[in-house]
Amino acid sequence: MRIYSFILFLILAFQVNGSCQEDQYRIGIDDILSISFWPEEQVADLNTVVRVTEDGMITLPVIGNIKAEGYTTSELAKIIVEEISIFNTGCSQVTVIVTEYNSQTVVLTGAVNNPDEYHFERIPNLLEVIRQAGGAAPTADLSDVTIVRQVDGKVEVINVDLLKHLRDGDLSDIPVLKAKDLINVPESPYGLTSEVLRGKIFKGKNIYYIYGAVNAPGIKTLSEDIELVDAIADAGGVTAGADLENVRVVLKDVRYSSVLNFDLKKYSETGRPARYRLHPEDTIIVPYRPDQTFWSRMPEIIVPALVTAVITTIATAIIVDATN
């Protein structure tokens, strides 16, 4: 009989002190707790559901106010048993369950399928949060995800190129999310996002191409984070006859290519659409305006040719004189 009493004692002690010592979740403000007392026939009227108030307290029958914030469920259960035993010696066990993890929330907005506030026992990584929101929308720009966080009364904005992490296959250095973070996945200004059109596995050479009404067309080295306007500037800028309203970027994919259209005249006036960052093997085409006939383009065709011819003639004459 003694052995059974001892086993029963161990079971009760194990439950009171927390049936899972490894549970390290700490109760927070706004969490909803379900609190049950045992044996039920003696203290069933004490069972209650409470919310942790802004000051970290909960209010229980008989006991009154008691601090809950910062404790694990097993630690709080032990404290409640100690408090209730003063008023009711028949209560030998308390179970505390967090039914709503309202202190561990993040808000997801923007181009996701189910933008909303999400509650977690433990907040997962950024990719998992987006997945639980139904995934990114087809128009999402995963290269410019932002996390807005309040730190000591100040707003901190963290920019995350989630697409780069996915392509590199390394999620280890993605910023860790914290409670009350606001996550925004922006819409791509180009309709279907260029990242979706491009495909996830295309790497490409570290170059881009630029042709048309620019002063130095050709193949260029792709530097990190170079944008469309910068790339055109690196190509010597546009010529006088450039059609800035119909600039095109051809995206190379594993199978197919896709084309994005840019109105750089509008961009220079309004800042819209958003800046476009180049990717490996993009091709930029700056067309000539329709009114630019062959004769109107003669200066930009003839002058470089004449300069090249003159330089070549002078160089040849110098070489001939040197050999004589």
Task: List segments where confidence is low: pLDDT < 50 over at least 5 consecutive residues.
Answer: 1-22, 191-201
What is the residue-mean pLDDT, rounded to a whole number? 79
Q: Topology as H/E string? A: HEHEEEHEEEHEEHEHEEHEEHEH
Question: How far is it from the N-terminal to the C-terminal residue, by CA?
Answer: 123 Å
- Report the strand count: 15
- For the biggest β-sheet, the strand order reads 7-6-10-8-9
Number of helices: 9
Helix content: 25-40%
Structural class: alpha+beta
Give Rg in angstroms: 33 Å
Silhouette: rod-shaped
Look at the structure and give the CATH class of the largest domain.
Answer: Alpha Beta
How many structural domains? Answer: 3
CATH homology superfamily name of the largest domain? wza like domain
Concise overview:
By secondary structure, this protein is of the alpha+beta class. The protein is built from nine helices and 15 strands.
Describe this structure in words.
- This protein has 324 residues and is of the alpha+beta class.
- It folds into 3 domains: 2-100, wza like domain (wza like fold), CATH 3.30.1950.10; 105-187, Outer membrane lipoprotein wza domain like (Outer membrane lipoprotein wza fold like, Roll), CATH 3.10.560; 197-286, Outer membrane lipoprotein wza domain like (Outer membrane lipoprotein wza fold like).
- Helices cover 29% and strands 25% of the residues.
- It contains 9 helices and 15 strands.
- The protein has helices spanning 2-16, 40-43, 73-87, 126-132, 162-168, 194-198, 228-234, 264-270, 298-323, and strands at residues 32-38, 48-51, 57-60, 64-67, 93-100, 105-110, 116-119, 145-151, 154-160, 182-185, 207-212, 218-221, 247-252, 257-262, 283-286.
- The strands form 4 sheets. A 5-stranded mixed beta sheet has the order 7-6-10-8-9, with no helix packed on it. A 5-stranded mixed beta sheet has the order 12-11-15-13-14.
- The longest helix is centred in the last third of the chain and has 26 residues, at 298-323.
- 22% of the residues are buried.
- The model is unreliable at 1-22 and 191-201 (pLDDT under 50).
